[in-house]
């Protein structure tokens, strides 16, 4: 460790409230005892309120008010950091090793009471998610570094529709949405801003180009619009008024499209503004699971489309039922 890191580590250890000898500090940090003495001299010279007591029961300790300095984390902040790390790791956060080290460092410099409390908070929260793909971590790390440094990457991308293509790409951001990682940026092959699934990147390496992210650009908004074109930024928008029990509307608003498109909500009525083309494509399938709990007040075109989709589904399952009956007759 550098001297600055060692000094900070000593402060963290003393913040636990325990009185520690120079030997205990040296053993804990795996450094020479003379290094501890030198760091203590520097800390005292810089104004850190460290009290040194000599004798058989002596040691170093911090004055109480310093333990509550703003740069230190209180118990609720420690809990938030530990629990947030659970969400990040479950999402496949690309810097999970660094995150674990940070949490371990946090735990290392707490007293026994705080450590026990952190363990209970960690056990009291769980995140259920599919296993993350470990292959993505190095790709996400490289993309994130390129975003920060404004450096172009050479990317081999497999769209699953065509053969893999090689392209130079300026990544503006990486995003996690619905269990998958995406990157949004400027594709120099297509000469336009594009979004890509990270799990479909077959290869990634540094390229020579550099870029500046456009000011005011929203990667989140671009991704949502690219996944479902015409839903939020269409030239022609339509008002969609729905009536449903409050509980059903609350669930509907958890869907990203309806959450973003909400204009007005009063009890069991809600007004949304959605691209007209989306009403004929995505929206009916999002509304189907709510069944009879949902009443469409307007527009009539959405009501008609819902009827078409429902009739098509009914016909599909009728054919399925007829086929099942035929197979049953053939086996008897």
Automatic annotation (TrEMBL):
InterPro entries: CBASS_pafABC_assoc_protein, HTH_11, WH-like_DNA-bd_sf, WH_DNA-bd_sf, WYL_dom. Residues 139-204 form the WYL domain. Residues 8-61 form the Helix-turn-helix type domain. PANTHER family: PROTEIN PAFB, PTHR34580. This is YafY family transcriptional regulator. It comes from Paenibacillus nanensis.
């Amino acid at each position: 460790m550098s001297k600055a890191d060692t000094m900070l580590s000593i402060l963290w250890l003393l913040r636990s409230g325990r009185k520690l000898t120079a030997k205990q500090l040296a053993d804990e940090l795996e450094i020479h005892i003379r290094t501890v003495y030198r760091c203590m001299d520097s800390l005292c010279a810089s104004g850190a309120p460290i009290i040194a007591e000599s004798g058989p029961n002596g040691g170093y300790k911090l004055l109480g008010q310093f333990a509550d300095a703003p740069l230190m984390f209180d118990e609720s902040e420690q809990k938030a950091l530990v629990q947030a790390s659970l969400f990040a790791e479950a999402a496949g956060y690309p810097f999970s090793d660094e995150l674990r080290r940070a949490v371990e460092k946090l735990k290392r410099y707490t007293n026994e009471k705080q450590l026990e409390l952190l363990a209970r908070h960690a056990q009291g929260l769980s995140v259920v998610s599919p296993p993350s793909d470990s292959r993505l971590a190095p790709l996400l790390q490289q993309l994130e570094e390129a975003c920060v440094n404004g450096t172009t990457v050479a990317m081999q991308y497999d769209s699953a529709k065509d053969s893999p293509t090689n392209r130079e790409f300026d990544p503006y951001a990486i995003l996690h949405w619905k269990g998958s990682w995406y990157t949004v940026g400027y594709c120099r092959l297509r000469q336009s801003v594009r979004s890509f699934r990270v799990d479909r990147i077959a290869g990634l390496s540094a390229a020579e180009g550099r870029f500046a992210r456009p000011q005011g650009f929203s990667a989140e908004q671009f991704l949502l619009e690219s996944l479902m074109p015409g839903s939020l930024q269409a030239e022609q928008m339509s008002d969609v008024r729905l009536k449903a029990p409050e509980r059903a509307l609350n669930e509907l608003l958890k869907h990203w499209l309806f959450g973003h498109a909400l204009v007005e909500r009063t009890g069991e009525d809600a007004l949304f503004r959605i691209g007209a083309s989306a009403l004929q494509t995505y929206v009916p399938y999002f509304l189907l699971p709510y069944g009879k709990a949902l009443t469409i007040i307007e527009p009539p075109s959405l009501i008609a489309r819902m009827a078409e989709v429902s009739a098509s589904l009914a016909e599909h399952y009728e054919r399925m039922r007829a086929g099942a009956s035929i197979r049953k007759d053939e086996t008897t």
